Amino acid sequence: MRFHLIDRVEAWEPGKSLKASKFLALGEEYLADHFPRFPIMPGVLMLQACVEAAAWLWRATTDFGHPVVVLREVKQVKYGTFMQPGRRMDVLAELTKVEDGTAAFKAKGTNDAGEQTVAAQFTLRGYGLAARGPAGAAAEAKLLEHLRAHWGLLTGALKGG
Q1: How many CB atoms lie within 10 A of CB 125?
Q2: 139, 147, 153, 159: least buried by Cβ within 10 Å?
Q3: Are 107 and 50 in contact (CB under 8 A)?
Q4: Looking at the predicted structure, is the pLDDT value of residue 1 above 50?
């Protein structure tokens, strides 16, 4: 199962911040189990939406210099109101520090009523695959092609259909 938790990038300023949106639909498969009579977005997926927004900011900041981005550390996670189907979660990710292949961020999510759903500070680690030889270089090229196309869809620069 693969989730893309950012549906739209609304605005970004490389090296500073990125604003994105997640539209929570009742048909999202994880809602069937969380919870059948009161479906809400799991807290870990709200956090992942923040991480995903931050990863896009870092890629945009470095001109996709870090095609692989992984979560390294999370601090000070705070959850607020439930995120229910039919609502939009707005995510703001801010880059606070870059050092030796890692980047620190603070991020928050709010629902379309302005109520905070999640806030956190975390560190991401970025790396490429090309240094791993020809197979790594080929995999990185395919990954970069996919990421740039997805970025185009998220930002509206590339129209689907």
Answers
A1: 15
A2: 159
A3: yes
A4: no
d(CA 74, CA 64): 23
Specify the residue for token string 């931050």.
54
Instruction: Compute φ and ψ for 156, nearest 5 degrees.
Output: 90, 0
Tokens of 80: 């607020």
Q: Does residue 65 surpass a pLDDT of 60?
A: yes
Q: Measure the CA–CA gap between 95 and 54, rounded to whole angstroms.
A: 7
Could you report the per-residue pLDDT of 4-20, keeping only the tens digit for each? 899 999 999 999 999 99
pLDDT surpassing 70 at residue 109: yes
Residue 36 pLDDT level (bands cut at 50, 70, 90): confident
Give yes or no: 146 in active site.
no
Tokens matching residue 46: 């709200």
Distance CA 74, CA 46 (A): 13
> Which among 23, 150, 9 has a CA at the least distance from the CA of 92?
9
Q: How far is CA 80 from the centre of its chain?
A: 19
Q: Which of 4, 34, 146, 150 is catalytic?
A: 34
Specify burial of residue 84 (Cβ count, 10 A radius: 0-12, 13-18, 19+). Answer: middle
